[in-house]
Amino acid sequence: MTDKNKLVLDGYRLTSKAVGAVSTKYTGRTQFLTMVTFEQVVHMFPKVDPAKPHDRNRSVDAKRAKAAGQYWLDHPTDWIFPPLILTLDEELEFQAVRDVEIAAPGLDLQLVRLVIPHDFAYEAFIADGQHRVYGVNDAYARCHQALRDAKESFKQARDSGSPAVELENLRLHVDSATRDISRFETETIGVQIITSANKELQQEWFTTMSNFQKPIGRGESFRMDEKTNLTIATKHLVATHPLFAGDLPCDEGEEPQPRVDERKDNVSRASDSLYSLANLRDWIATLVLGSKSETSVPNLDELVSVDEIVAVGKSFFDALTDSVHYFEKLEVGSLRGSEFRKLNGYSSPTIIRGLALAANSELLGSPFEASPFEVGEFDGLVIDQMGLIRFKKMLASLTPELEYEDDPTRPKPQKKRMKQPSWYATQLFREGATAPQSGFQDRARLGEMLKTWSSEGKIDFADYVKGGVV
């Protein structure tokens, strides 16, 4: 470095603690905007320990954080991370790059050579990005261990005179691990460093962001997802199945209402839309996986194709429209969601999810109950036609059991209750409610109940009453 006033290009090497940055003001404090390599994040930034949460931030979920690092490794060409935000109690040393002028009249904006002190990892605090930092560190350690293991395996195979084909395969493992490590050295992430931000201020910022930031809804997330087979299949069914496709019929001049709301997590009681995209996505996942979570089934997108999921989903929704007259009316548009939610429990997304859990057993034989599978071991989703017949009979017999009746003792809008009082005795429904409770244990009990109903052709409510008989 011959001229300290010129931009330091070697600042991204670990031999230096200087980086090029833009300096400006943030709430009257000096802030720096820069880019650092992922290797610099590992070696220069504060360490995150899930077992020792920092008092200036929330505790870290190690599993979620490791998943963030694995995501970065698995998506070398299309990953995305928001910038990291770090704070310091004190100021940082910097030098202006005087021969570079930024045309920003009235703004205290300049290109600088930012000096990262040796104790930065101990003096700085991560205001936003703890999970990313922990995930990057975990991925870095795993990649280096993978390279050491690959080199050792290659050395042992070479020394023992292994065949050329085996040596070539092991060399490819070394090359793959080397490529992963090179990404840490060359790829960068944005960083915002705010100085003179003490503990009290950072805690105030944390509380403010927690109060005002709203996480992205599941509906919006599913609407944007174009990679996950379960979501792609669900959106295909929304676009093609006559129960869900397009808008509801409307008179001239009226605003068309979609049959499925693609943005909200749940539709309101007064909405004419039938359900939400998030509802259907939940049902499809339950139909395919049963009570298994998606994260518990590795390689799910490789095991089950979109076409398979669509075929199973179509059979499920066809069964609803063939067996339940309400769904037939919804399909032709003579009944709307707002009206449906005053008539029958089939309007409850939780009821349909319970049916999907029963259908996973009756139609598919609970194919993922014994997972995980290796790719090539899974036989695919095969519909049991006899199970489908039983399931459709159950749907028809269940219809009168889910009817609502007026409850004049309850104020609007909750003025309906289940006509079949035994539902309340099971405690799956709170007293007077028209939809079952949606907790995991309640859904599991409902699914088991409906599965028995389908397989045996009848149900004895007394078997599902908590602490007594109906």
List keywords for this structure.
alpha+beta; 2 domains; 7-stranded mixed beta sheet; two-stranded parallel sheet; 11 strands; 44% helix; 11% strand; globular
Plain-language structure description:
It is a single chain. The chain has helices spanning 38-44, 62-74, 120-123, 130-159, 164-186, 199-212, 218-224, 229-240, 277-289, 300-303, 306-323, 325-332, 337-340, 349-362, 385-398, 422-425, 440-456, and strands at 18-26, 29-37, 84-87, 94-96, 110-115, 125-128, 188-194, 260-261, 275-276, 404-406, 416-418. The protein is built from 17 helices and eleven strands. With 470 residues, the protein is α+β, with helices and mostly antiparallel strands. Residues 1-16 have low confidence and may be disordered. The strands form three sheets. A seven-stranded mixed sheet has the order 4-5-1-2-7-3-6. It has a two-stranded parallel ribbon with strand order 8-9. A two-stranded antiparallel ribbon has the order 10-11. It is globular, with a radius of gyration of 29 Å. It folds into two domains: 9-212, no CATH class; 218-464, no CATH class. The chain starts with 17 loop residues before the first strand and ends in a 14-residue tail after the last helix.
